[in-house]
Amino acid sequence: MLMNTEKFLMLPWISKEDRNNNVRRLAFITDRFYRHNIISIICAINPYEEIRKEIEGRYGDVKTIYIKCPLGELTKRDTKGLYAKALLPEGNINKITNLSGVNDHFESPERPDLIIETDKETIPESSTKLTTFIESNI
Description:
mainly alpha, two-stranded parallel sheet
């Protein structure tokens, strides 16, 4: 069964533990690929330092890449309207109540292996930075 993880994580009853378990599952599957020399990249919002440290401690060669962007810029780029919904007044039936970094907690990584600042870099600059990082860590 396939599930849209993004929509799942936006449900109002998704707890911190639910989010952490989702990251644990992704890391577990990635580790299985790693054991067969397959490089995997998890592209997921991972808002808590506690789970980042857990994953780093449990599995081998884990790298954290922080895609950093100010909230104002994210709001401008928001093609799905999620930030607008998160910023709606309390009581509005369309309000999203658990958007990471807006009305749900987000902890910036303490020691990311790479930081990509998408508000300061062009897409080609960020892409080159990421590609170089991946190639240097193979």
